[in-house]
Amino acid sequence: MSTAQATQQRPDSSLSLSERLRTDTRQDHDSAESNSFAKALLAGTLPREGYTALAVQHYFIYTALEEVAQSLATHPVGGAVYFPELHRVPALERDLAFLCGPDWRDTITPLPSTRAYAERIRWTADWPGGFIAHHYTRYLGDLSGGQFIKRVVQQTYGFDDGAGIEFYVFDQLGSLPRFKKSYRAAVDALNLDEAEQQRIIEEAHVAYRFNTEMMNELSGFVPAS
């Protein structure tokens, strides 16, 4: 390896952990947005059935996340991001009752990729640093790009009264930019050595891969061009 290559691959220790999570996963984020399912969702061309299928998968993912969050609520690392006001399962339950009907619990199943994703999240109950990676990747995405998705979904499916999009509504947080700043500060205040920070960043890449695999499985809902 050349000196230039070694310099390029060396972590930038001047950046905080939240900054590194954001910059080091930028390519993963861009790749996820180029997926055909994501492109159709963002363009407003995804049939309502496709949006409903996404909400179903979110239910299984966030159930796992919030189970682990509860188990790590008092842990010095995992508990740093324990914000019950972020939790999405109650909102997803209301969305699915609206989208699928009152018997929705009897009609939904996780995709194979979603099942593997949820299992990976539950595995991090024994590694709180890994839980931080998954928590950060999901919720910071919901608070950022997810707010654009909310507007697209409202316009595409006519969900004017909020039913069907409660997943993207964070009324309990107040100012979203202010909350995101405090969230990142909580992550950055963790006393983690370089090796552990690098493991967390690698797990964030894993989280993106699981999400992309899930969207690939959902691509059957994308209309033929």
Overall description:
The protein is mainly α. It has a single domain (46-219), classed as Heme oxygenase-like (Heme Oxygenase, Chain A, Up-down Bundle). 65% of the residues lie in helices and 0% in strands. It is built from 11 helices and no strands. The longest helix has 25 residues, at 194-218. The termini are far apart.
CATH class: Mainly Alpha
Strands, count: 0
Task: Count the domains.
Answer: 1
Instruction: Return the structural class.
Output: mainly alpha
Taking the alpha carbons of the first and last residues, their distance comes to 45 Å
- Strand percent estimate: under 5%
Kindly provide the radius of gyration, computed on alpha-carbon positions and rounded to a whole number of angstroms: 18 Å
The coarse overall form would be globular
Instruction: Find the CATH topology.
Output: Heme Oxygenase, Chain A
GO molecular function: heme binding; heme oxygenase (decyclizing) activity; metal ion binding
Biased composition (Basic and acidic residues): 19-32
Keywords: Heme, Iron, Metal-binding
Protein name: Heme oxygenase
